[in-house]
Amino acid sequence: MPHEQAVQQMTNVEFVADIMEFSRYGALAQAFVIEALQRHAERIAAANPKAMDTPGLCGNAWVGVAQEIRTKLAIKYGEYESNG
Questions:
Q1: What is the pLDDT of residues 65-83, one digit of tens each?
Q2: What burial letters (b/e) apply to 28-64, b meaning 16+ CB within 10 Å?
Q3: Per-residue DSSP letters for 22-55?
Q4: Is the pTM here over 0.85, yes or no?
Q5: Within a 10 A sphere around the Cβ of 17, how many other Cβ atoms?
Q6: What is the pLDDT at residue 80?
Q7: Is there a contact between 38 and 81 (Cβ–Cβ < 8 Å)?
Q8: How far are the Cα atoms of 66, 71, 77, 81 from residue 60, in angstroms, in the given order?
Q9: What angle (nearest 5°) sits at the alpha carbon of residue 78, between those of residues 28 and 38?
Q10: pLDDT tens digits, one per residue of 4-44
């Protein structure tokens, strides 16, 4: 595991790659990240954009990006089926 300072200096892409590639649990970390993406994308994609509005973020954009990510995940892994 990288030193705390090295982690803090990583870009977001480097950080996600580190989570997915360097886990003591191996590929289970990748399954965890994909599952988290699927769950969150499903929930936000179905949300009312107005409910997602914040002073610094347009709800339409947040829902739109969730829909985009959900579509890419469905292409790669098939439609998501929640198990609970």
A1: 999 999 999 999 998 887 6
A2: ebeeeeeeebbeebbebbeeeeeebeeeeeebeebbe
A3: S-TTTTHHHHHHHHHHHHHHHHHHTS-HHHH-BT
A4: no
A5: 12
A6: 83
A7: no
A8: 10, 16, 25, 24
A9: 55
A10: 888 899 999 999 999 999 999 999 999 999 999 999 999 99
